[in-house]
Amino acid sequence: MPQDTASVRSLFLPGPAGRLEALLNAGNPTATHAALVCHPHPLYGGTLHNKVVFHTMEALNSFGFPVLRFNFRGTGLSEGEYAAGVGEVEDVRTALDWLEREFSLPIIFAGFSFGAAVGLRAAYADERVRALIALGLPAAAGPAGSGEESVYDSDFPRTSTKPKLFVSGSRDQFAAPGKLEALVRTFADPKKLIRVESADHFFEGRLKEMRAAIRGLGQGRSAGWRFLTARRQIGRRLPFFDGMERNS
Questions:
Q1: From CA 81, how far away is CA 73, in angstroms rounded?
Q2: Per-residue pLDDT tens listing for the chain (248 residues)
Q3: Alpha-carbon radius of gyration of the chain
Q4: Which end of the chain is more exposed for a tag (fewer CB within 10 A), N or C?
Q5: pTM score of the predicted model
Q6: Domains of the chain: residue spans and CATH
Q7: Closest to 96 measured CA to CA, from 50, 117, 127
Q8: Contact (CB, 8 A) for 17 and 79
Q9: Strand order in 18-25's β-sheet?
Q10: Is 81 exposed, middle or buried (0-12, 13-18, 19+ CB in 10 A)?
């Protein structure tokens, strides 16, 4: 990894329910994109330090992109209280606003589990976000009476033509075989689904393979992702959809 991507900055974002604790892994001076990674369910131990979140950050940072992680409201040092996935959508928008002010670069969104479901709601129609990565996206609605019934409803991004990557374990207990595949088929192209063999929802023992799935987008001619290997000349931003192919 280039030396100038090694620094990590601790900061707080001014959120709608109070300050949000965040970490920024620096990118290259010639970075073409910035990235945001959202953590899993805060009521079940999810934080910005989650292993899946960390490995996702490393994969995106390896392309030279600055990567922001933050704690949802009421998590870690973030102020506020858990808001059943509704207020958390606003937290994601706060993070996107900060990235825009800080870098003025196109943004790649990535999220794990709850972070994917909540973050997609904020990112799919946001013009600043150019690509979506959902790791361990649950393929079922939240429990009845939990207040989270609509959190995992994935109908909304189906018409989005942004490049979409879905990565889940073949043994993901929240995305049964066939169910996630059926869901992804309803989404507009370009899209790609990768099932990591023998991995559960948390990619336990398979984090290396999960990270490789993200980094693999920069190899070959993956639909919609060729920007990852495009070389940027200082002072000139390359078009995001340079030579984009669509899935058949």
A1: 6
A2: 444 567 999 999 999 999 999 999 999 999 999 999 999 999 999 999 999 999 999 999 999 999 999 999 999 999 999 999 999 999 999 999 999 999 999 999 999 999 999 999 999 999 999 999 999 999 876 554 555 656 667 666 688 899 999 999 999 999 988 999 999 999 999 999 999 999 999 999 999 999 999 998 866 555 567 666 554 433 333 233 232 222 22
A3: 17
A4: C
A5: 0.87
A6: 3-229 (3.40.50.1820)
A7: 127
A8: yes
A9: 8-15, 18-25, 67-70, 34-38, 107-112, 129-135, 164-169, 191-196
A10: exposed
> 3-state SS of the chain: helix, strand, coil percent to 5?
30, 20, 50
Structure tokens at 113: 């589990």
Amino acid 27 reads: G
**Strand locations in 73-224, DSSP E?**
107-112, 129-135, 164-169, 191-196
